[in-house]
Amino acid sequence: MAKESLSPRFDAEFQSKLEELLFWRRDVRRFRRESLPDGLLARLVGLANLAPSVGLSQPWRFVRVVSPERRLLVLENFEAANAEALADYSGGKAALYARLKLSGLREAPEQLAVFAELAPAAGQGLGRRTMPETLQYSTVCAVHTLWLAARAAGVGLGWVSILDPARIAQDLQVSESWSLVAYLCLGYPQEEHDDPELERHGWQARSHRHADVLTR
Amino acid sequence: MAKESLSPRFDAEFQSKLEELLFWRRDVRRFRRESLPDGLLARLVGLANLAPSVGLSQPWRFVRVVSPERRLLVLENFEAANAEALADYSGGKAALYARLKLSGLREAPEQLAVFAELAPAAGQGLGRRTMPETLQYSTVCAVHTLWLAARAAGVGLGWVSILDPARIAQDLQVSESWSLVAYLCLGYPQEEHDDPELERHGWQARSHRHADVLTR
Q1: Which residue of B has its CA nearest to A212?
Q2: Can you give A179-205 as a three-state secondary structure string?
Q3: Region B193-197: what's the mean pLDDT?
Q4: What are phi and psi of B24, to 5 degrees?
Q5: N or C terminus of chain B with fewer C-beta within 10 Å?
Q6: What are A2-16's pLDDT values in tens digits?
Q7: Is residue B22 within a helix (H) or strand (E), and if so which, with residue range?
Q8: Closest C-alpha to B105, from B139, B148, B76
């Protein structure tokens, strides 16, 4: 049954503000220490739960990491992976890499580990027979939904991927069928920027190929 | 340099409209045949290019599939994968699966294959040493950005994953370092719904666990 009358209309003003949000989103690594207001994190996770998922499997699983001991394990995990990554570069590149701030793990008031359940009952396998990685991809859609909702609420989010993901799962004692997709830092940003930190610090310029689409 | 003065403000009205968009997004499989207006697809791809990416690698690669011969190969690919998927179910489940409409490949006026470049020069490896799958995850962020921007512009999008992804890459003759992440159908929807098609047809109900977050 079509429900035309329920169809929302997104006018030019909303579309333009949405573009502004996409342009401004940023990966935030410099957080103020103040807590998020009560209920905000739960609201953001609730919005993430609206993300698209393969076969309606909703395979995302969120773990809020609060214990200082566990946060220290994550920080050590990051620092070890980051030291190994640094060793891959040499000369000026290594010096530049060493100066980059690549996580807000020491300051962010909230940290979320986001896993994909690789054996969900929901969805009954639909849509993932030839592309099982769509479970992780659905989880990424939830992360990205959370990211945009957070930014619209003035909250910064940084995605840390310089980690041993299996060790995160082990240290957080989650189910063996959960696979880490993202480790997120959240909090109010210290600064706002309209350019990415990696561009601002000379690591990588953005490409602006706006309509770089092959045709077949 | 902080640019506080440039910081956009997203007010309660925008946040509420954004929630409406997230709630309403849908995976669309029933398209009207009319073309999209000139320039709209390029605009949407331009917005997708604003998505977050690991190390600013921007690894997404879009292929617009227009040739009837190539579209037929994709349709045949889907139909073969879908027949194999159907064979995994039995009884009432198989009958229900067979009745589901799982792609808009026959009607959608636009089709985009979205690949991840697995050996991008951009980003110089940053952030993906221990989690190389972040290249595909970045590409998913671009797909999801495109999806939200399309819906805000009144355009429907459906993600087809019932496909042999390697055969798509082969049939579209793309670089060997490109890996298929998503095959998308786009066009104006025939109907608008506030519930997912898989839920409406009795395949899978949504979970509404709004704040289902483990604490560690």
Answers
A1: B62
A2: EEEEEEEEECECCCCCCCHHHHCCCCC
A3: 92
A4: -100, -5
A5: N
A6: 445 456 789 999 999
A7: helix B12-24
A8: B76
All residues at 6 or more sequence positions from A16 whose CB lies less than 8 Å from its CB, including other chains: none
pLDDT in tens, A101-114: 999 999 999 999 99
Give dist(CA A60, CA B135) in Å, integer: 19
Q: Between chains, do A49 and B193 touch, taking CB under 8 Å as contact?
A: no
Report which of A4, A191, A103, A86 is spatially closest to residue B3, judged by C-alpha positions. Answer: A191
Contact B24, A214 (CB under 8 A): no
Q: How many CB atoms within 10 Å of residue A70?
A: 19
β-bridge partners, A186: A110, A157
User: Is A79 in the B-facing interface, judged by CB distances under 8 Å?
Assistant: no
- The residue behind tokens 């037929």 is B72
Cβ contacts of A165 on chain B, cutoff 8 Å: 130-131
Partner residues linked to A64 by β-bridges: A112, B215
Closest CA to A206 of A214, A216, A196, A215: A196
Give the tens place of pLDDT for each residue, B12-71. Answer: 999 999 999 999 999 999 999 999 999 999 999 999 999 999 999 999 999 999 999 999
Element (H, E) at A158: strand A156-160
